[in-house]
């Protein structure tokens, strides 16, 4: 995992990594990269605010925000300190703690879509605002650990950014594990 790399490379390096919180372990299967003020899809596009300050580093901190007043979204701050960027965790597979994940998600059984979607990932991990700014590179609370990288990486446009410029809307900064079923809108992705 290379969290100090440019956003797209940092995003690819997170595929296959593990998110660990208590008995729950999720393997990251889908991510989206977001750059600094020059990326019109990024929360950094309007400069530093209290909400997005974590994006300015250091790398490896959790950036959580509440989306649509419904879902928490987990991002990992990346890049050099002072240069804002982050990677949204869009999807994951459950490695351990399935019963806890099912209870948190209100699901009766495991399906490929159980943690497909950023709100579902945060819900499966039981995350809220208290984790914003949390150091994911140290043990305790919520940790990010290396895992086996995918054999094939898929790439395509990011989702849900209609407000961005046309160039940023089509930028292929959504990445996924080509072998995983826990990936949203797979048809919009192609091998990297």
From TrEMBL:
The residue stretches assigned to a coiled coil in this entry are none
Q: Please name the top-level EC class of this enzyme.
A: hydrolase
InterPro entries recorded for this chain? Answer: Formyl_transferase-like_C_sf, MPG, MPG_sf
Q: Which UniProt keywords apply?
A: DNA damage, DNA repair, Hydrolase
| A Pfam family annotated for this UniProt entry | Pur_DNA_glyco
Keyword Ion transport assigned to the entry: answer is no
Judging by the UniProt lineage, the source's domain of life is Bacteria
Which SUPFAM superfamilies has this protein been placed in? FMT C-terminal domain-like
**EC number(s) on record?**
3.2.2.-
Task: Read off the PANTHER family from this record.
Answer: DNA-3-METHYLADENINE GLYCOSYLASE (PTHR10429:SF0)
Q: Which family does it belong to?
A: Belongs to the DNA glycosylase MPG family.
**Protein name per the record:** Putative 3-methyladenine DNA glycosylase
In its UniProt entry, the species of origin is given as: Geothrix rubra
Which lineage do the record's taxonomy fields give for this organism?
Bacteria, Pseudomonadati, Acidobacteriota, Holophagae, Holophagales
């Amino acid at each position: 995992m290379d969290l100090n790399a440019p956003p797209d490379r940092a995003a690819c390096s997170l595929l296959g990594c593990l998110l660990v919180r208590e008995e729950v372990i999720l393997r990251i299967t889908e991510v989206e990269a977001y750059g600094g003020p020059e990326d019109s899809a990024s929360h950094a596009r309007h400069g530093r605010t209290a909400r997005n300050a974590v994006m300015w580093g250091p790398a490896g901190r959790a950036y959580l925000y509440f989306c649509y007043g419904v879902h928490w979204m987990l991002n990992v701050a990346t890049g050099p300190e002072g240069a804002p960027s982050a990677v949204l965790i869009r999807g994951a597979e459950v490695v351990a703690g399935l019963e806890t994940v099912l209870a948190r998600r209100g699901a009766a059984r495991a399906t490929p879509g159980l943690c497909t979607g950023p709100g579902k990932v945060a819900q499966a991990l039981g995350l809220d605002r208290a984790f914003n700014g949390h150091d994911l590179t140290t043990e305790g609370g919520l940790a990010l650990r290396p895992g086996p990288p995918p054999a094939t990486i898929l790439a395509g446009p990011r989702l849900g950014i209609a407000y961005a410029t046309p160039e940023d809307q089509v930028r292929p900064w959504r990445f996924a594990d080509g072998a995983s079923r826990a990936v949203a809108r797979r048809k919009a992705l192609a091998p990297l």
